[in-house]
Amino acid sequence: MLRIITQRADAEAELRRICDRTQDEQVVHKEATVREVLQTVKRQGDRALLHYTAEFDQKTLKVEELRVSGSELDAAYQQVNKDLLDAIQLACRQIEAFHRQRVPKSWVQFGTDDIVLGKRYTPVDRAGIYIPGGRAAYPSTVLMNAIPAKVAGVPRIAMVTPPGSEKGINPAVLVAAQEAGIQEIYRVGGAQAIAALAYGTETIPKVDVITGPGNIYVTLAKKLVYGTVGIDSLAGPSEVLIIADSGANPIHVATDMLAQAEHDPLAAAILLTPDSALARKVAAEVERQLVNHPRRLLTEKAIAHYGLVVVVSSLAEAAELSNQFAPEHLELEITEPWDLVNQIRHAGAIFLGYSTPEAVGDYLAGPNHTLPTSGAARYASALGVETFLKHSSLIQYSPTALNKMGNAIITLAETEGLNSHADSVRLRIENRTDDA
Amino acid sequence: MLRIITQRADAEAELRRICDRTQDEQVVHKEATVREVLQTVKRQGDRALLHYTAEFDQKTLKVEELRVSGSELDAAYQQVNKDLLDAIQLACRQIEAFHRQRVPKSWVQFGTDDIVLGKRYTPVDRAGIYIPGGRAAYPSTVLMNAIPAKVAGVPRIAMVTPPGSEKGINPAVLVAAQEAGIQEIYRVGGAQAIAALAYGTETIPKVDVITGPGNIYVTLAKKLVYGTVGIDSLAGPSEVLIIADSGANPIHVATDMLAQAEHDPLAAAILLTPDSALARKVAAEVERQLVNHPRRLLTEKAIAHYGLVVVVSSLAEAAELSNQFAPEHLELEITEPWDLVNQIRHAGAIFLGYSTPEAVGDYLAGPNHTLPTSGAARYASALGVETFLKHSSLIQYSPTALNKMGNAIITLAETEGLNSHADSVRLRIENRTDDA
Asked: Can you tell me the distance from the alpha carbon of A106 to that of A416, in angstroms, rounded to the nearest whole number?
């Protein structure tokens, strides 16, 4: 069922098809629905949130139930065991330590003639984090979104998440949120939650940046509100591309492919290897592990449609194909992974060597697991502290500096037909001459 | 005509109205047109470009005329005088010098148990720059977009710009493009140009990131193709907010306001001052300068609709109002501008002191003049080298490290119901035990 391809042209065509796997969706129709939800929440506030929660989540809430209460937050700690709490706290520490590296800092530079130039970094006032419900209610997602905001120094971080089934919101998610420093949690999901964060309602204050993954409605809503607020990215289904040599263990490679496929029927798992024996062993092992897989149906679907093994002529060819695909996750299960890294131009995260399965990075190595998908690694990067920071350019000219540069500015302004631009310099220079 | 307001509540309401000045546009209808243009160019390539150029620009082109020829590029140098060329070259040097500061660099960090973590920065393969035609054909825009891409190390930078009237493309724009390192220039504008850059045509190769300002059709097209390619931002009409004290020269302040207003009938120019005498003098001077202004009609319109003077009780209050507005350009024409900077949370660029008119930064101080508008400074920053860079996270775990962290990863994976994630670690740890 996991196809093995040996021709380069076929491989390129298949990789293109897999990369474009979300392009075919009928988004225009869904966009009309999302647009209506956004407009209604903008106009009606909380009332619209309750209406859509009843309609889409089959949950009747009162206004005062929108915000998760302190007692519910406390209770969540009773529902997670010590091992899990320890693991969440370990992940918190490691993610925070990594994100504290190389955070952009404000600077000024003093030049000739008392010119001062610089950049002043400040965090956004408020961040809003979307955490999906249902199958994808992951505490790790909470940490990966909230900790960069906390490191950036964002004073208020709000989280929204669907109300959940009768049991309510996953307690591990509520614990992760508190460990990561989130104080406000609201029981609302879908496009209506994105609208609440973008425009504000009586209960939920407007934020400046919205991050976090979601289904197609959430993603469309984020795209539509982009410009009113900042967003992290438009997340698509997850994907891994593995480059493996004959030193790789086929059982490990197969498990790593399934670890991607088990996320979503649209997830993609690709192996590029020069070793045709490894290719066959991995394909067989994937079949074997699928038989008793707890998420067999969806995992099988992903493997059938978006699973692929390509036998390549060399590791260099594998790097070229990988660059064309620009994978979200790239595993280099090869003897000398650092040699190949220099040939990789586009990848969200690179996992080096035989003992670094993607799960290491998904949970607690430190780097963010929110990564560009569907070829977006060609131009985008992981979510990070920068997502919650912005800077102001700083410029100070002295009269002397303005005098020296004035003529060039006036020439450029006049070329552009911007008379007052030229005057704003000219009048100051004339003053200067008067003073002298 | 330039209104003076003294009540805080009125000021807040007016600033909100000015900040939201582009929200009312009937974008949904225009979006349908833009969507059609994008789809047609995606399907028909060059043929669609020629069709739309004939329809929207009233210009009949042959396919081979889409790309600006080498002889045309050479000829442009004959059409600009030496002063202008010198000014362009000076601006190039200064912009490049500023953008070379603090460019993110790749790094790795070696931890305990042979854990290696890091980030590897790489430029995008191709950048596409949109340069408007007509009233807004500015050589400075070319420099501000192309130089950051060049500093980022982007191998190919393509520029698109409308074909222009009978005289063709502005020669100063063609010279600036060459000085900034652009080699490919295409004679196409509007949404069709954005489509060509996003999807590629027979003549114009697909790019990875599109930057540059444009009219509402260009901006909508950029929003729609975001996700297929990266974009810089959704630029709105320009704005300046000036905080001035009694030491400011009213003639200079008035000229700076007009320098913003002369861009666009939607441009905004706001003065906040504790000095009511200065407020009146500035308002009178604006009227005086408008009489003979070369762009009187549009400038007058901007001042009438989006010009505003607020008499504030203190500079601290001015800073608060400025933070609510989050201006693209902020001028601090006050005695101690560095004292007030610390109270500013949101501003695209800050111009400090009496002798730093915004024009200094528009042309050649060095920092980018492409800045967040309409309140986007709450979450966004100037265009920069980062716009054209992205990074891959790097993660390497040793068998020992995986052994130590393994249980925590397995606990988290099992909590999330991701069995193969847990297995990808478990099977490797078991192997390790076997080896030992």
From this structure: 33
